Amino acid sequence: MSGTDPEKTLLLVDGSSYLYRAYHALPELRSPKTGEPTGAIYGVLNMLRKLATDYKAQAWAAVFDAKGKTFREDVYPEYKATRSAMPDDLRSQVEPLYEAVRALGWPFLSVAGVEADDVIGTLVEEARKRGWRTVISTGDKDLTQLVDERTLWINTMSNEKLDVAGVTAKFGVPPERIVDYLTLIGDQIDNIPGVEGVGPGFASKWLQQYGSLDNLLSRVDEIKGTRGENLRKLTEWLPKARELLTVKRDVPLPIPFEKLSEFKPDPQTQRAQYERYGFKTWLKEVEDAPAAAVPVPAKVEQRKYRAVLTEDELKDVLLRMEATDLVGFNAVGSGEDPMTARLVGVAIALGDEGVYVPLAHDYAGAPAQLTTDKALALLKPWLERAERRKVAENVKLDSHILANHGVKLSGATHDTIIESYVLEVHEKHELGSLAQRHCGWTLLSQEEVTGKGASRIAFSSVEVTRAARYAGQNADCTLALHDLLYPRIAADDNLRRVYETIEMPLVPVLFRMERNGVLLDRQKLDAQSHELGGEILELERKAYEAAGQPFNLGSPKQIQEILFERQKLPVKKKTPSGQPSTDEDSLAELALDHPLPKLILEHRALSKLKSTYTDKLPRSINPNTGRVHTTYSQTTAVTGRLSSNEPNLQNIPIRTSAGRRIRSCFIAPPGSKIVSADYSQIELRIMAHLSGDENLRQAFAAGEDIHRATASEVFGVPLAAVEPEHRRVAKVINFGLIYGMSSFGVAQNLGIDRGTAQTYVERYFQRFPGSKRYMDETRKRAKELGYVETVFGRRLWLPELRSGAPVRRQAAERAAINAPMQGTAADLIKLAMIAVQRWLDESNAKAKLIMQVHDELVLEVPEAELEATKAKVRELMQGVHQLEVPLVVDVGVGENWDQAH
Q1: Helix, strand or coil for residue 622?
Q2: CATH number for the domain including 138?
């Protein structure tokens, strides 16, 4: 959506639209206390609560149909005559629902003589007069006729969102022609006849051809065939049908528009209702924080946005930038690859306005703009000075775009995506979501500005005024978000430590690593791709032989047919649709006893390696640098771990020969070596630290093989007498338990009966009681708080801990056990990267960090610096933080990554 200031939002809910849907979705939900039905109440309230979170509006209302007839029955007595009576179970929930909506703090509107649609249409018109945006939450397609540049239609239950382009794409006609469209096809639910034989396709085709229903009817004789005859039969009816389908926009409102933002929650009524209906989670929430679910009007106002086209204008802006303590900044680039993206413009937010400096907009009729060289000559001193503080929405990407023009961004002290990640790791972090959630703003999306799919245009082709609106708004929102988010981080010592000593200092380290890239042996990769192709063909031949016929090894349906219908193999698991599963776990279990599933698994593994790595990596080599440059994301994994994308360098298997062969293609240039520094058993060491278990700590302090030590305790034998099978069992238990695995999971993993596995687990907890105590206390605390924390205070939110679905809740409980360990490991490796890069800079070393893979750092080191680098990297990684058990780092060296690991 686009429009003019002020950017205020009205949130409207078509309650009647959701009432039936909620009832039918949860027909069996009843109060455990009274037995009365509650599905519709729960469904609608749940939807209202979600909307209150997703859309921080300045005004809001829930609108329902009133009892009795409407003006439409006077126009057409058969209107809705075919609708069945409301079920008794639903009728009994209507009044309690209305009371619950009011208690939640939502204005309740219901106007006699008209429908909810008409009240919504009137409110949209009132909002439009005031220059507000409107979000309509409904499942009723009729209300798409209200959509315009300032009005968005959303279906909260299906997550569908329709703006003007979305309506046009879905129905084939723009919103202003929706009434004509509906008139032609009719509405069976409301008993409004349409033209027989005319469905959505023909309706949109006619309206595209003739422009409107009136034009179509004026040329009705041109329509040939049966449909033309049917259309002519209804020429007198269709105007009346259109009247019935047109939403009114002039209904007298029972609540003045200005009062819609003044409604407050009623915690006392909420408590009584939630207790009566058995809504336990909501009851606890309202007791702890009575107003938590109520939409809170945002206080943040957006500023004005303009384009800066001349040198004098930019100089004026620069003077203000120099005098401003913190400036919102955004480098707008072209292209998807950070290493090659070029500046199209820069956006700057100064607290009272957002400006956009276009540099490369080249559409027909584009205004004269500053050249990139001229603009950067003026901006470069400010961009490169550390004391000139900036806040951006993606500092690392901005750094890449500017680096491509020879500018070294400095002073970017804050990043709103990272602020959001530290505060609310479980939420969405892109600017649009943050704007809606925290500021109550609905930003222009990039798709709205550039289009999407085949019709998408380059940002350089966007009209400058609209580009200024989009980019200036983004920079402005970034600054506003920082003002809201950073104080919350600064007020919490743990969150501040994570943000200021881990996440933000890591940004320039990742930027350097991405710029460094990794050298690949392209010829070797090409040869491996050829070899893998031959191995895949051989596996196909063997699979055909084992199956007795050729088949598509990439088709789950054909695999189902071969394995379960023809070979009659036992079904280990079924898909949600009831079909035999052919996922990896199911095939792995079958592969223990049958050759064909094993061949299929091997074929899958090699095919994935070939397509993902040996085929793709050579295409990822940057022609200018001759290297592969991945992108590391800090804000993807909820545990704090980094992720690697385009290409993903973190998932190359290390335990298979094919995976190791691929790793051997990551090479050092002549005169250098690859150095791999890997934390040893880091999560188990963190477990020993967190649990306080003396036996675990002693084993690590003594430098023992932890799996042998565990086996010795579990099986009651001396260390020297531990057999390989004992160690294997202990290893499964060690890693299984830190991932929250139950005795059933241990049994499955080891291929033993559940009773034996239970015995092993019980023995483990007897010998390592601190582990059991830690797990029990962590589960309990996580349920109370809704989150767990790492050693450094990183907060890992687990909203599913309160889920009513047992499977989700149990998964969240398992995650609660592991997340502090995995998150602490992520924090440690990040701190290690910061320390290593700082030492490399201070010592003017030519060695450089080139990859981070989970608990491993990979460097490219000149041979002259090899010994010093190995020793220092080990020292820094082991000393980055003092745990109750020693950190151990294994360092390897080789011509390639495989040799070094």
Answers
A1: coil
A2: 3.40.50.1010
